[in-house]
């Protein structure tokens, strides 16, 4: 008994036990078609993927009767390769990692977290940024200010103050007060207790803003005359380019 002949209606909820189905399974994952076996999909019993094909089916079918999973199909081939042969992917690692998390395949998750790409992001960069107070909130604040200043403009500029230590924060307080008096928007990052430098944090800011789809660059902020501060030590101008 074939899957395609048994389940034709588009989007119809499958009924009955999967134990009655052929051991060969046809899948439609986000528009990509795959053929595999039930035993492959159920290789890791504790995973969400195994749960989908255990006991009472929880999946709908497409117009050809293939089980439909509403996830990016491009990366499912790497999931299947791992289930079939324990081969850990070396391409599209970040994307496959997200899919492994979704399908809750714990052994693959752990092996991917040991890869240089995921290890560097989770253990090194993310752990550093977790020690920078209000980092994520400040990224969102930068974007809100830039969008508010984008009316009839090609670029939006934002002044960012980056201080690594409490002493640096105290040193630039007068400059912050001066900018506030001039009604200039300043987003302040730091201080933090970790090895990375100010230039490292600036790179992180650019990386995370660009990851949201924005075109951004930065340079030291050149203070106006009468600005009594060596501004390039802590102040930077970020430019959002809109067109």
TrEMBL record:
This is KCD14 protein. It comes from the Eukaryota. Gene3D superfamilies: Potassium Channel Kv1.1, Chain A. Pfam families: BTB_2, KCTD_C. One of its GO terms (biological process) is protein homooligomerization. It comes from Anhinga anhinga. Signal peptide: none annotated. Residues 23-120 form the BTB domain.
